[in-house]
């Protein structure tokens, strides 16, 4: 799983939950976004053969889209499944906490996306 910033704790929680279910995940924390550390996440894809990008930005025109494009351009033949993306809902981020949580990626949606790459619930 590839992420950065505020999504990192949720991704780590999701990785722990998936590990308990027998799915080991490598977490790549992009600490610097410019320049984008393409070599690190492409190496991870070549090793694991899968990628899920978690980004609190919108799916359209997001950093997750750029990372997905870089993976497709540089490691397409290494992938065993399409690149998964877990992004915020395409709505303005609301102020109310419960609505904000509904709009942003959460552990359960991250876990569901990873499980989908392995063919469903596991």
Word description of this protein:
It is an enzyme of class 1 (oxidoreductase). Residues 1-110 form the Transketolase C-terminal domain. With 122 residues, this protein is α/β, with parallel strands linked by helices. It has one domain: Rossmann fold. It has five helices and four strands. Strands 1-2 form a two-stranded parallel ribbon. Strand 3, helix 3 (63-75) and strand 4 form a beta-alpha-beta unit. The chain starts with a strand and ends in a 5-residue tail after the last helix.
Mean pLDDT across every amino acid position: 94
Beta strands, count:
4
Sheet with the most strands, sense and barrel status: 2 strands, parallel
The CATH architecture assignment turns out to be 3-Layer(aba) Sandwich
Question: Number of helical runs?
Answer: 5
Fraction in beta strands: 5-15%
How much helix, percentage-wise, in residues?
40-55%
Strand order of the largest sheet: 1-2
Task: Output the CATH topology.
Answer: Rossmann fold
Estimated radius of gyration: 14 Å
List low-pLDDT spans: none
Total domain units: 1
Q: Identify the overall geometry.
A: globular
Q: What is the element string, with H for helices and E for strands?
A: EHEHEHEHH
Give the CATH level 1 class.
Answer: Alpha Beta
Distance between the termini: 17 Å
Give me the secondary-structure category.
Answer: alpha/beta
């Amino acid at each position: 799983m590839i992420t950065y910033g505020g999504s990192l704790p949720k991704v780590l929680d999701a990785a722990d939950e998936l590990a308990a279910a027998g799915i080991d995940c490598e977490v790549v924390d992009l600490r610097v976004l410019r320049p984008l550390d393409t070599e690190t996440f492409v190496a991870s894809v070549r090793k694991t053969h899968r990628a899920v990008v978690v980004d609190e930005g919108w799916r359209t025109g997001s950093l997750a889209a750029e990372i997905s494009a870089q993976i497709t351009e540089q490691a397409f033949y290494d992938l065993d499944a399409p690149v998964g993306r877990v992004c915020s809902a395409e709505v303005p981020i609301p102020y109310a906490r419960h609505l904000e949580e509904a709009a942003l990626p959460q552990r359960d949606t991250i876990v569901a996306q990873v499980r989908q790459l392995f063919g469903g619930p596991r």
